[in-house]
Design goal:
about 150 residues, Thiol Ester Dehydrase, Chain A, seven-stranded antiparallel beta sheet
Length: about 150
């Protein structure tokens, strides 16, 4: 499970990005790196450190929701749209192992936009283990931000 096995294009971020999910400038963030697949999906390979555990050895449910939200957000952004989550539904299917520094456990995040209508964008994401087993999935509605929304 590695981006060199697929034809994936890195998605660039601003150097001072402080986003908790993908911002390199956030010292406590997840530092996720996303890629764009040929079919329009976004993909990320991640090993979530054990500092983000809930139950011992497993990723906290809030972090799982964050991973899914971030993946769907990147799918929307890959279309040139800046949007925020309006509502999201998460299906926690199996526990997701956290990674100790000496033994990283890589997971795969996949997301895509399913429908767009005006400022509304619906997306889906899922988290897979190294064998391709789906561990969690989500659906969400994103609303495009207009300049007046940000002021």
């Amino acid at each position: 499970m590695n981006p060199t096995n697929e034809n994936l294009t890195p998605i660039a971020h601003a150097p001072r990005n402080r986003c908790f999910g993908c911002g390199e400038a956030n010292p406590v963030g997840l530092h996720l790196k996303f890629f764009l697949a040929e079919d329009g999906a976004v993909v990320c390979f991640a090993a979530v450190p054990d500092t983000y555990e809930g139950p011992p050895g497993y990723v906290h449910g809030g972090i799982i929701a964050t991973l899914l939200d971030e993946t769907m957000s990147k799918a929307v952004r890959s279309r040139g749209v800046v949007a925020m989550t309006r509502k999201m539904e998460v299906d926690y299917k199996r526990p997701i192992p956290s990674s100790a520094p000496a033994a990283p456990k890589t997971i795969r995040l996949e997301g895509r936009v399913t429908t767009s209508e005006g400022r509304k964008h619906w997306a889906e994401a899922r988290i897979l283990d190294a064998e391709g087993v789906e561990l969690a999935a989500a659906k969400a509605l994103f609303i495009q931000i207009l300049k007046s929304d940000a002021s």
